[in-house]
Design goal:
alpha/beta; two-stranded parallel sheet; 8 helices
Length: 209
Amino acid sequence: MGGTGAEGSGLAARFANAGVRVRIGSRNLEKAQETARRIGGQATGHTNADAVKEASIVVLTVPLSAQVETLKAIRGSIAPGAILVDATVPLEVAIGGRLSRVLTLWDGSAAQQAARLVPGVTVVAAFHALSAEALANLDHPLDCDALICGDTVEAKSAVTQLAATIPGVRAIDAGPLDNARLLESAAALLISLNLRHKVKESGMRITGI
């Protein structure tokens, strides 16, 4: 689990609460350890490179401005056969623009950029639409679908099982990794709705499936 911010710590808390072993990574070891102590359960704190060494699923929850640096720092430490789940939303705010607008990246999406930066690692895009505020409220289930994009059935199945440990979350296969740009844009839309309606926990439900 990479990222000690609101989204990363929220996901970590939900997974740990479900009995999942969670290794929290950060550039700052003390920060990672403090986040792990706050979460409890089977959560432990590590540097980013150490956190991924024994992980079968690595969840990257950093802003776009930190994505490239973080991936370069960990790509030599990711365990063989591990899955990288990229939850990066390429928001325009990374270059001083609006919080609710996405950047057009050369690779097509942040997830595809991640795949280019970690060759040989299976990348799945997921968890973009799960509100950090809602994740942090462990007393209440979420009311949100988790859309998952990836190019292998096996990887998407593993991430689906992980998502299912969060009460109230339903994972939906949203197609190949090429569709990640749609997930990232949907996350920006939710941010826009939060701002417009002065809320912090908007989510998505797909009907008819």
